[in-house]
Specification:
Elements (H helix, E strand, L loop, with lengths): L7 H6 L4 H6 L2 H12 L4 H4 L8 H6 L3 H6 L6 H14 L7 H14 L6 H24 L3 E3 L9 H8 L5 H10 L19 E2 L18 H18 L7 H8 L15 H11 L33 E4 L5 H10 L3 E5 L7 E6 L12 E11 L2 E7 L11 E5 L11 E5 L1
Parallel strand pairs: 5-8
Antiparallel strand pairs: 1-5, 2-6, 3-9, 4-6, 4-9, 6-7, 7-8
């Protein structure tokens, strides 16, 4: 996603002025900008006053020509940039700095806007995001928040498009019906596990994937745990087919899953216990694209691995959870994702909303630790490695942050 940023952002954030645009040939300019961009981090750029240099390009009325000559950028993204430059002329001077950030946002994430109205609405949402980032930074100073691929979405749109947990009431009932003696409890004392443990450093975590705009986090959470079990016990890294478990549990009553409209991780785990799971190369993930149509369940696909059982963990027992993570491996869990929309790095400490937590997203717990007296959990997400801290995030431990201590499942190879 750096292609456009490599050309526009650095051109405007270094000493490349409008007069220099006239003196340099297009090939020279492209090489200069690409070289300079590699020295910079976009998140730092967003915080610098150097964005004022954006004005030079706009004043020179050469934006369309400049955009046309950008390499490695889709025509749809170029159209979005052109629409945005036209929209900029209607803005009040006070909004221009935020617009310059918005222009850079379109650049980095190759956003596609269809008309002036779409640009205008997205810019308003982007402005709201910038204000929210400031507020969250004050509330949770040990974390870092910033612009990411979700910055032109309202919180409601973000949850609707990029999470996907349904059936929480069913799970509450299920937990209530399980004999407490059958819940997974570690027999270790807390003093018998290390203070810090990260499965990423112990050959137990596979690469971060991206669910796109499909509400199927439940599948990525469960498959992530299955991949970890296979890796821990065989040393073999597999990318298993999320699409298979989405398709084959879709609207099947015993699994409680509904394709891109949400589902449950234990439904996926149960399916894989019964049927196994094939490689992603045999049944690629396509539900995150286009209209998010879920394909039919395939037949005859060779399975690459299976799990033997899955177990629930007791709710609201984070000490036990840490012991199970250490003993068994990464754990599938649910959270309220509202607080992580703008997350970049660090330890998140989110206050419970006035209306209470609202579980809506499935992720994987891959470790835990302590830093400067603050205990934390490490989570693997399914929004791609470009989100958060290379696709991972940390949350304060011991306070049921994001309601993460309610529903947790272990899988066994």
């Amino acid at each position: 996603m750096r292609s456009l940023s490599c050309f526009i952002l650095v051109t405007l954030l270094t000493t490349v002025s409008s007069s220099l645009l006239d003196k340099l040939g297009k090939a020279q300019l492209s090489e200069l900008v690409k070289t300079e961009f590699e020295k910079k981090d976009l998140d730092d750029i967003f915080d610098k006053e150097a964005f004022d240099k954006f004005e030079e390009l706009f004043k020179d009325n050469k934006t369309h020509e400049f955009i046309d000559n950008l390499k490695g950028l889709s025509d749809k993204a170029k159209k979005s940039l052109k629409l945005s430059t036209e929209f900029r002329q209607k803005l009040k001077p006070d909004d221009s700095k935020n617009f310059n950030k918005f222009f850079g946002f379109i650049a980095k994430f190759e956003k596609e806007y269809h008309n002036d109205t779409h640009v205008s609405e997205s810019f308003k949402k982007f402005q709201s995001t910038l204000k929210r980032i400031e507020e969250r930074q004050k509330e949770s100073p040990k974390a870092k928040f910033g612009v990411n691929q979700f910055s032109d979405l309202t919180p409601e749109e973000f949850i609707a498009k990029h999470t996907g947990i349904n059936g929480v009431e069913h799970l509450k009932q299920l937990h209530g019906n399980i004999n407490s003696s059958k819940l997974l409890r570690s027999k270790r004392d807390t003093t018998q596990i290390p203070c810090n443990f990260d499965w990423r450093e112990n050959n137990g975590v596979t690469p971060v994937q991206n669910q796109g705009g499909c509400g199927c986090c439940y599948a990525f959470s469960a498959v992530g745990v299955i991949e970890s079990q296979h890796l821990i016990h065989t040393g073999q890294t597999l990318h298993l087919s999320e699409e298979q478990v989405i398709a084959c549990t879709n609207n099947v009553s015993k699994y409680h899953n509904h394709g891109c409209n949400g589902g449950t991780a234990p439904g996926v785990l149960d399916y894989v216990i019964e049927n196994g799971i094939t490689l992603a190369d045999n049944f690629k993930f396509t539900s995150g694209d286009g209209d998010h149509t879920v394909p039919a369940c395939p037949s005859g696909k060779p399975y690459a691995t299976k799990i033997t059982k899955e177990e629930f963990l007791p709710s609201n027992d984070e000490d036990n959870l840490a012991k199970v993570v250490y003993e068994v491996g990464p754990i599938a869990t649910y959270i309220d994702a509202g607080g992580i929309q703008d997350y970049k790095s660090g330890i998140l400490d989110v206050a419970e909303p006035s209306g209470g937590w609202s579980i809506n997203h499935g992720v994987v717990i891959v470790g835990y630790g302590e830093e400067n007296g603050t205990k934390y959990w490490i989570f693997k997400n399914s929004w791609g490695p470009g989100w958060g801290d290379q696709g991972f995030f940390k949350v304060k431990r011991g306070v049921n942050s994001l309601d993460m201590a309610q529903f947790n499942w272990a899988a066994y190879f």
